[in-house]
Design goal:
This protein is an alpha/beta fold. 36% of the residues lie in helices and 24% in strands. It folds into 2 domains: 134 residues, 3-Layer(aba) Sandwich (Rossmann fold), CATH 3.40.50; 85 residues, P-loop containing nucleotide triphosphate hydrolases (Rossmann fold, 3-Layer(aba) Sandwich). Helix 3 packs parallel to helix 6, helix 5 packs across helix 6 and helix 6 packs parallel to helix 7. It is globular and about 55 Å long.
Length: 255
C-alpha cells in the first residue's frame, strides 16, 4: 500500500476561536505540497497539529493508514514525520558534527555509549559526513551550533531531519530570515529531496517565487479553512485566491 499522510476534519479551538477548522487533506509520496494563505490563516497551526506540537480538538491525523492523532511529537518523529527548523534546539551547544552524528545514531538504533560506537561504526560516520557535505557544512564540522550564522543553522536543521530518514518532510518557511546568498542552498536541498518519489514533502511558505519553483500542488488556508487545492498555476491564477488570500488585486499577476 502506498504511504499517505492524511488529515480528517482536523480542528483546533483556542477558547472560542477556531484556528484550524475541519481540514481534510491527503498528501502522497513524490509530491511537494505548498500550504499558503495570509497571516493568521492557520498554516503553522495546521503544521503543529500534524507534527504533534498541538493536540487536536477534533479530527484525525493518519500516516500510512495508522491513526497517530494521540501520538506525542517524539512518537510521530519515530513513526516517520520530520519537522524542520526545530530540531537544532535539542543540541545547541554541540558541534555541527556531533549534532548530525547523534541524529544518525538515533535513526540507526545504536545506543549512546559516550560516543565509543563511532570508533567502530565507519558506516555511521560516513553517513553523517555525507549529510554534512550534502548541506554544504562539511567545513563547519567543529563549530558549535549556536555559533553558526542563521543560514547555516537552517542548513543544520535540514541535515538533522535528513539524518532521521523520515517518510514525511515538513518545512515551515525555510527561507525566513536568510540572506539572498543563503536562500538558493536550502531551496536546492529541498529540490533534491523532491527527487525521491517515496517521500512526502509539505512546505509552508509566503514567497510565491519559492512556491512556484518547488510546488507540485498548492493548498490555501483562510480563517483556518481549506479554500483551494490544486496545481500551482491553477490555484495562483484563481481570482478569489489572488485577491483574498495572496493580496493581489484583480487583473494583476502574482509577482
Amino acid at each position: 500500500m502506498t504511504l499517505t499522510l492524511e488529515t480528517r476534519d482536523l480542528t483546533i479551538r483556542f477558547g472560542g476561536h477556531v484556528a484550524v477548522d475541519h481540514v481534510s487533506c491527503t498528501f502522497r509520496p513524490g509530491e511537494l505540497t505548498a500550504i499558503v494563505g495570509p497571516n493568521g490563516a492557520g498554516k503553522t497551526t495546521y503544521f503543529n497539529l500534524i507534527s504533534g506540537q498541538l493536540p487536536a480538538s477534533e479530527g484525525q491525523v493518519l500516516l500510512g493508514g495508522t491513526d497517530i492523532t494521540k501520538y506525542s511529537a517524539p512518537l510521530r518523529t519515530r513513526a516517520g514525520l520530520g519537522r524542520a527548523f526545530q530540531l537544532t534546539n535539542l543540541f545547541p551547544n554541540l558541534t555541527v558534527e556531533e549534532n548530525v552524528r547523534l541524529a544518525v545514531q538515533a535513526a540507526s538504533g545504536v545506543h549512546y555509549d559516550m560516543l565509543r560506537p563511532w570508533m567502530k561504526r565507519a558506516d555511521l560516520i560516513a553517513r553523517a559526513d555525507a549529510i554534512l557535505d550534502g548541506v554544504a557544512l562539511g567545513t563547519r564540522r567543529g563549530v558549535a551550533a549556536t555559533a553558526l550564522s542563521h543560514g547555516d543553522q537552517r542548513k543544520l536543521e535540514v541535515a538533522l531531519m535528513m539524518a532521521l530518514e523520515p517518510k514525511v518532510f515538513m518545512f515551515d518557511e525555510p527561507t525566513a530570515g536568510m540572506s539572498v546568498d543563503e536562500v538558493p542552498v536550502v531551496l536546492d536541498l529541498i529540490a533534491r529531496l523532491k527527487q525521491d518519489p517515496s517521500k512526502i514533502i509539505l512546505l509552508v511558505e509566503h514567497k510565491m517565487d519559492v512556491v512556484r519553483s518547488l510546488a507540485d500542488r498548492i493548498i490555501v488556508l483562510h480563517n483556518g479553512r481549506l479554500v483551494a487545492d490544486g496545481p500551482p498555476a491553477e490555484v495562483i491564477a484563481s481570482p478569489i485566491v489572488q485577491e483574498a488570500y495572496l493580496g493581489i488585486a484583480p487583473g494583476k499577476s502574482a509577482a
